[in-house]
Structure of Flp pilus assembly protein CpaB:
Amino acid sequence: MSSRLTMILAGLFLLAALLAGYWGLRLSRPLESLPAPAMPPAEAAVPAAPVPVAPPEPPRSPIVILRRAIAANTPLSEEDVLLERLQVVPAGAFQRLDQVLGRSSNRPLAAGSWLDESSFQAGGPLARMIRAHERAVAVAIDDVIGAAGQLRPGDYVDVLLFLREENNNPQSSAQVVLPALRVLSVDQQMGLANDGRPAQTAEEQKARRDQQSIGGNPVRTVGLAVPEALASRLMLAAQAGTLRLAVRSADEALLAGYWSGQDASPQLETANRDLYRFSQLSQVPLASQTAAAAASASTMQIIRGAQNSDNNKTP
């Protein structure tokens, strides 16, 4: 190779080395030396959205709640109860723990239920559903007697009595024995107590159903609130003939006060006036039977030796 060609190649390599060094210097400059990007004008900035303000929390009041289920006749301790703060406090609910500690109820109390004075009152579900002058009486029913199985606690029914034709009852009859009785319970379904709360909690009803299912199919019953003066009449009617329960309309607004007063004399007199004596014709009211009995008693028997005769008594 000639020296001239060697000189040309050396010059080209030198030029390439200079170019490579230049580009290397350009690429190795620090980023801080680069010009900063232009900022947009202040008038183009988007305003920040306002932060929503949370509404103030409504006031809450403490209420005593059962932490766990309590068996009957078990004194309450601090581990059994707690204070829960609610916006709406039920009427009469205890609001301090010292109001319930050491007290016991004669019935089981379910977990999560709030406590008031009625939680410690004596008496079972039916006893807390009737008034002082009423008695709770159970009547056996089937789908026919119990209005096709559509009875519900709180309904009002008339008790009808059907008497078959027998020797001491020459003609079959049907009559209203007791009007406007309040239904307290149907099988295991209970109504409301006098304070407006359920007379039996869901846990108590479930335990009662489980207990009866162990012993087989129980007899279906309905509990009725019967005035004290008429409780024996219902018992007599149940033994004398066949009962039917006739449901009364819920639109009768006066049913709730029919037997509500302590003095139910007007209603009792009406029931007695419309009642037929069980052993007599259904078409002969009680007043007529009394008059007939008095007329038969107005004759007396006169015995003269071996002869006797019936003469009318003189007044």
